[in-house]
Amino acid sequence: MNNVEISDKLVKLLKLRYEPVAVKIVKKGEVIPEGFSEPEKNIRHCQSIMRARKGESFVIPADKHACVVGASSLGLVPTPSKVKEGDFHAKLGMFDCADAAANMICQRLEFEEESTIATVVAPLKDFKTKPDVVVIVDLPETLYWLIPAATFFEGGRQAFSTAAFQATCVDSTIIPLLSGKMNMSLGCYGCRRSTNIRNDEMIAGIPYENLEKMVESLERIHEGPMQKARQK
Predict the structure, then answer these.
(1) CB 143 within 8 A of CB 136
(2) Dihedrals φ, ψ of 24, to 5°?
(3) Which of 12, 66, 106, 115 is deepest in the core (most CB within 10 A)?
(4) What does the alpha-carbon distance between residue 68 and residue 163 come to, in Å, rounded to a whole number?
(5) Per-residue pLDDT for 6 more than 80?
């Protein structure tokens, strides 16, 4: 399946309200994919995803990333000392002290400092090449069906990692890419303050390499279990 087919199937099978969003992390030495333009103003990674789910496309170099916390985790810029030492997040009132906030940053997965040069974020259907991760934003019931799709062939359980911050950059982009497994997030302070994500929406990040198999699973689940559970 190509990206248009995969996207169409995801939208129809899950009854998505928005487009699945493709994310490509461009590393140093790699060529930035053609066909995408930079945003007029600096933009956060979470904002780019929320806008891409409604059809927009972006290539965002390091100097166009508005959030240094997200940009540093994505390997675009160095992590500022105020973020690394916890002062930045502690001042937001979300932690008892700077040490607690620093512990969150210490435990986050991240790319090597300044190892990447840009992010490309666009609807999956508009991606001509292979992205790294596909992000879906929707209702919990909708994203729930990704769990049986992920466990359809091998069974087991799904374990998700999240925090009070970095729902799209760490939870939905970096973790799926580095772990090779889907991850889900309830959202975070930053994306809920800075984007149009709704109160009743959450986020899933899926490694692109897993996506076609998950679509196959969804097709087999769709006519039976999914329809029965969605009848009410």
Answers:
(1) yes
(2) -120, 125
(3) 66
(4) 17
(5) yes
